[in-house]
Structures are given as structure tokens and as C-alpha cells.
Write a structure and sequence with these properties.
Number of strands: 35
CATH topology of the largest domain: Methylamine Dehydrogenase, Chain H
Distance between the termini: 28 Å
Radius of gyration: 24 Å
Number of domains: 2
Shape: globular
CATH class of the largest domain: Mainly Beta
Structural class: mainly beta
Number of helices: 1
Strand content: over 45%
Length: 452
């Protein structure tokens, strides 16, 4: 690839800066992780999709759930379609072992017919096993459904949760309900043995409440432990959990909560983004799909969550499913150039440097967009202990142009806005600037590019 004049200038500037003050070192390991697209499979609307063996089940707009074999070049070879017939429109579904459980997303429900369907599946066909009618018309085009330890849990918009015992898929039965929750639930994830985190809007408005904790009792019932995150002025559209840390995608970005004490669930991290839509974890990496693309983070410890990369797209990323054995993340994008299924390459945890998983390093990670920036950028950093710290901005010659922090800082994640001004309040010129954090004898750095 031919090197341009601009690229040569940038490289020389970086090398010169490192020579002038080599104490500025690049963060190890994690900063090298990037979002990379491996494949694009054009498609129209997709309600949901799930992997099974060497293939994928897809629920398109017409209501049938079709199975495709995934070829080595990512081409999809059609095998068969699951469709109960009549007025039923299968939409949301989940796969467990050799069984598929689906919800009827028809606009009108005919009394006396199933809402919940159970099928046995293989790579070449399916068999209807049973159906249930625990509720009437449901909003199954978006209502979540999940499998956990012999149970299927789903929500009927806008209020009721159902837990169905599917230990015998030929004879499913309702074993617990939570009625009148007034939730618009878009995701449910298991936590520990019998606790489920349901993301939500509370009431009919979008702006009061983030998620509900639901406990599955041994007697079969469902009990709401409580609602959390009220007053954040955004609703939750997706959830994922690593250890006891809950990651949620919101209308205003990524919000992270500590679940170690259910009597006190504090927010421990916030990353602003344009309308977070879905979120999934692969190993210790957290992917958030939003209205403007993909955001990549890494979980190091409860109070050390690192922003790694952003891949712009400009259209909604509505569904994401990890394919861990292939180190891939499959996503559904609603239209645009990448409309359909997009396959991202998921980085391996082993590829990260040895120091990236420790708690003895301070990291500064650029947060927000754009970078390059014009008016301002947000510098976010995480520290593992309380200490004295300095955060300075240096030009390419190694001269300090702005001190953003000088004093004590506390353990956790923090963010500081830099508007592109020096210590005298004058706007700096276009170019590369280095952000250096010194804390407790440790030093780490990153760079930003200022544009006119």
C-alpha cells in the first residue's frame, strides 16, 4: 500500500514525540483490539436469529423461522422452514440443545390456539411437540424470550412475565408468573441460579427506569426484587452480565451497574453514545450496537472498564449473537449499505497483553466521538486505587499545553472534557496531541488529533 505524505508526517510526528519524552508509553494489549467486519449477508427485516450446530435459524418479516447451513465463505444454504400455519406468525425464539421454543407474533390472537410453541430440531427438519396458551396477543416481534436451566422465560407486552417448565418439551407448563409489571421489556438475561435481569421502560413513558430484577422462587413463582436506575432519563434496550457486573445499552449510551449487593445496585460506569440498541459479551469483551455503529469495551475488574474502539455505521444495530467457537459476533443491521447480517471478528482474550488483565495498571482511554475532534473530546480513564494524579496534554514537540488534572483522584472510572484549549484558554492548532496520565508511579498515554 502506498504511503501518503500525510501518513509520513503523522508517523514522523509520533516517533519524534516518543524520542523527545520516552516516558510516555502506550497502553499495553487492549489498545490494539479493533472492530473488524469479516462478512456481510444482505437481508431485509429480521425479528431474531440463533445459531444451531453449523447453521443459523432466522425469523424474517414473513413470520416463518428458517434454517440455513453456514458455508465457509459465509454463504447460507437453505434447509427448511418452521411455520405452524393458520394466522400464526412466529417471531421471537430461543434454541436449547435440540429444541426450539418460539412466540407467536401475529397481530391478532385466536382464542384456543397456542401462543408458545415447542419443536424438536435437527439440521434437516423439525417436529412440532407442543403448544401453550398462557396469554393472549403478545408483542412478540420484540418481546424477549430466553432459556435457562430447564425453563423458558418471556414477557407479554406491556406487563406480564411467564416462566414455562420445558424439562419435558412435549409437555410444557407454566410454573411462574409476574403480573402487572408495566414494563416494556426488550431483553432478559439469566443471573446466578434463578435471578433474571429484565431490561425495561417503566410505565408508558421512555424516561423513568432502567431494569428490573426478578427472582425465580423454588415454589415456581416469580417475584420482583425491585426496579433500578430510575431518573437516568433513558430506557434500557439490552443487557449482558460478566461476573456480578451488569452492562446495559441505553438511549444515551452504555450504563454499567454493580450487582454484588442487590440491596444497593450503584451505577459504576457511563459511556455516552447515540442511542444504544443492544449489547453482548464475548469473553471479557463487551459489544454495544447503537444507532451509529458498534462500540467495543473490555471488562478488567468491577471498577476498571475500558473503551477500546468504535466502528461507525449510521444505521441501527438491533440484534447481536456471539459465535464463540469461531470468535465471531453476528449482528442484524436495519438497512443501509450494511443492511442484513454483519459478521464482526471477535478478539480473543488471549491476544491481550499480560498486563491488561491485572489491577496494577492505570489506563487512559479516549471516550466519545469524534477522534479526530473539532470542538471537544472526552478523555476517560480508570484507576485501581485512590492516589495523587496528573493528566496533561502535550504537543508533538513534548511541550505541555494544558493540565486537565492535578491532585487526588479516586478508584474507578472518570471522564474529563478537553475543548482543545491550552492553559491560557487559547485554541490549539491542528495536529496530534498526547494525553498523559501519571498516578501512583505509573504512567500511561494516548493520543488525539485536533482538527479545525
Amino acid at each position: 500500500m502506498k504511503t501518503t505524505h500525510v501518513q509520513r508526517v503523522l508517523r514522523c510526528t509520533v516517533l519524534l514525540s516518543l524520542l523527545l519524552f520516552p516516558q510516555i508509553i502506550a497502553p499495553q494489549g487492549a489498545a490494539a483490539q479493533e472492530l473488524t467486519i469479516k462478512a456481510h449477508i444482505p437481508w431485509g427485516w429480521i425479528h431474531d436469529f440463533e445459531f444451531y450446530n453449523d447453521g443459523i435459524f432466522v425469523a424474517p418479516h414473513n413470520g416463518g423461522i428458517s434454517y440455513f447451513h453456514i458455508e465457509e465463505d459465509f454463504a447460507l444454504t437453505y434447509r427448511y422452514t418452521i411455520c405452524p400455519g393458520g394466522s400464526h406468525v412466529l417471531a421471537q425464539f430461543c434454541v436449547a440443545d435440540s429444541y426450539l421454543f418460539a412466540l407467536d407474533g401475529a397481530a391478532m390472537h385466536q382464542s384456543g390456539t397456542p401462543v408458545f410453541f415447542a419443536y424438536s430440531i435437527s439440521e434437516f427438519g423439525s417436529t412440532f411437540l407442543a403448544g401453550l396458551e398462557p396469554s393472549g396477543t403478545i408483542w412478540a416481534q420484540f418481546d424477549p424470550i430466553t432459556y435457562h436451566k430447564g425453563y423458558v422465560i418471556y414477557q407479554e407486552y406491556p406487563a406480564d412475565y411467564y416462566r414455562i417448565d420445558v424439562s419435558d418439551p412435549t409437555d410444557p407448563f407454566v410454573t411462574g408468573t409476574l403480573m402487572g409489571a408495566t414494563d416494556v421489556c426488550l431483553d432478559i438475561v439469566p443471573y446466578q441460579d434463578s435471578l433474571f435481569v429484565a431490561t425495561m421502560q417503566r410505565g408508558t413513558g421512555y424516561w423513568d427506569g432502567n431494569f428490573r430484577l426478578i427472582l425465580g422462587e423454588e415454589s415456581g413463582g416469580l417475584t420482583s426484587v425491585g426496579t433500578y436506575g430510575t431518573g437516568s432519563y433513558s430506557y434500557t434496550s439490552g443487557a449482558a452480565i460478566i461476573e456480578s457486573v451488569l452492562f446495559t445499552s441505553h438511549g444515551d449510551g452504555l450504563r454499567v451497574y454493580d450487582l454484588s449487593d442487590l440491596g444497593n445496585v450503584p451505577q459504576i460506569y457511563f459511556y455516552p453514545a447515540y442511542w444504544g440498541r443492544c449489547i453482548r459479551c464475548v469473553d471479557d469483551y463487551i459489544y454495544m450496537g447503537s444507532n451509529d455503529g458498534w462500540h467495543l469495551f473490555r471488562y478488567v475488574s468491577t471498577y476498571d472498564i475500558q473503551f477500546l474502539d468504535f466502528l461507525p455505521n449510521g444505521r441501527r444495530v438491533l440484534r447481536m449473537r456471539p459465535k464463540p467457537e469461531e470468535q465471531e459476533l453476528w449482528c442484524f443491521v436495519d438497512g443501509g449499505v450494511l443492511g442484513g447480517l454483519v459478521v464482526l471478528e471477535a478478539p480473543s482474550t488471549q491476544a491481550v497483553g499480560d498486563n491488561a488483565s491485572g489491577t496494577d495498571s492505570a489506563q487512559i482511554k479516549l471516550q466519545g466521538l469524534p477522534n479526530p475532534f473539532v470542538s471537544q473530546t472526552v478523555l476517560r480513564y480508570s484507576v485501581p486505587f485512590d492516589a495523587q494524579a496528573t493528566l496533561g496534554i502535550y504537543d508533538s514537540a513534548g511541550k505541555l499545553v494544558r493540565t486537565l488534572l492535578s491532585g487526588s483522584t479516586t478508584r474507578g472510572c472518570h471522564g474529563i472534557v478537553w475543548t482543545g484549549a491550552d492553559d491560557r484558554g487559547n485554541s490549539v492548532s491542528t495536529g496530534i496531541y498526547f494525553c498523559r496520565l501519571d498516578i501512583g508511579g505509573l504512567t500511561t498515554a494516548s493520543k488525539v488529533i485536533r482538527l479545525d
